[in-house]
Amino acid sequence: MKITLFTSNQLRHNYFINLLSKISRKLFVVQEKMSKSSNTMSNHYPSTTIFKDYFSNVIKCQKKIFGNTSVDGKRKNIKLLSINPGDLNKYSLKKIKDFLSSDLYIVYGSSYIKGELVNFLIKKKAINIHMGISPYYRGTDCNFWALYDNNSHLVGSTIHLLSKGVDSGSILYHALSEETSDPFLYSMNSVKSAFVSLTEKIKDKSIFKIKEINQEKSKEIRYSKKKDFNEDVIRKFLKKRIYIYKNLDMSLYKDAYFLKIKKVK
After folding, report:
1. CA distance 15 to 98
2. Domain range for residue 60?
């Protein structure tokens, strides 16, 4: 099977690339080059002390779960196109035609896709990984906001069909993590849950048999934007006692996949 992935270059993205490369005949990767040295996760947010404090926890957990992962250069079935952040929509379909002849298309961690490319991907029923449980949390930093709102049971990932609306495509399933007392590890493990589950479902071809469901707008709790994630809310979050739910209402999720947590020292 040939797979095309639109993604970024942090440790978690590289981990996903390597996972997919093990189950694909050819893996085409369009990878946006974010700064790996940034303490605020790819320069998305200001480099203030409070942001650095928060993201130092995120980066620490990312390294614990995914290791110092780089794309496996020994795997000859990976074809990589490295581009600058935000440049994706500058590429015509003709210019990236070698990356657009796959059997499956996945979007995770790329910049917002629009124009002829998003039209092409929607037609191909591309899969998008949203870090958040839709339709309850949509937008940016969704797992942060679920924890902030004391809704730790709504921390996870939504694997859905790509759409022009933000995180609004038809849902295939939800991926979650078993509970842990550390909210940062809990959230990052839900990222790994999405990767592991999707890779398994592609390998056994069950991903193509899932019946998707439309999202119910009425269930939305929060639609978050980048500007909402500011120093005041981060300061409050770091002082909060986060309680991780142990008893979950399974009716909230679609075909929930739970990642079993390995103890991380």
Report:
1. 23
2. 2-259
pLDDT at residue 19, as a whole number: 96
Residue 82 inside a domain? The answer is yes
**Contact assessment for residue 206 and residue 122, using Cβ atoms and an 8 Å cutoff:** no
Q: Does a structural domain hold residue 264?
A: no
CATH code, domain carrying 172: 3.40.50.12230
**Considering its fold, how many domains does the chain have in total?**
1
For the chain, what percent of residues have pLDDT higher than 70? 95
Tally of CB atoms within 10 A around 246:
9
pLDDT, tens digit, for every residue of 152-161? 999 999 999 9
Report whether 192 contacts 13 (CB < 8 A).
no
Assess if residue 23 is contained within a domain: yes
Q: Residues 137-150: pLDDT tens digits?
A: 999 999 999 999 99
Query: Rounded CA gap, 160 and 169, in Å?
Result: 6
DSSP one-letter code for 20: H
Q: In this structure, is residue 200 part of a structural domain?
A: yes
**Are 136 and 220 contacting, i.e. CB atoms less than 8 angstroms apart?**
yes
Give first-to-last CA distance, the chain, whole Å.
37
Across the chain, mean pLDDT equals: 92
Burial class (CB in 10 A: 0-12, 13-18, 19+), 161: middle
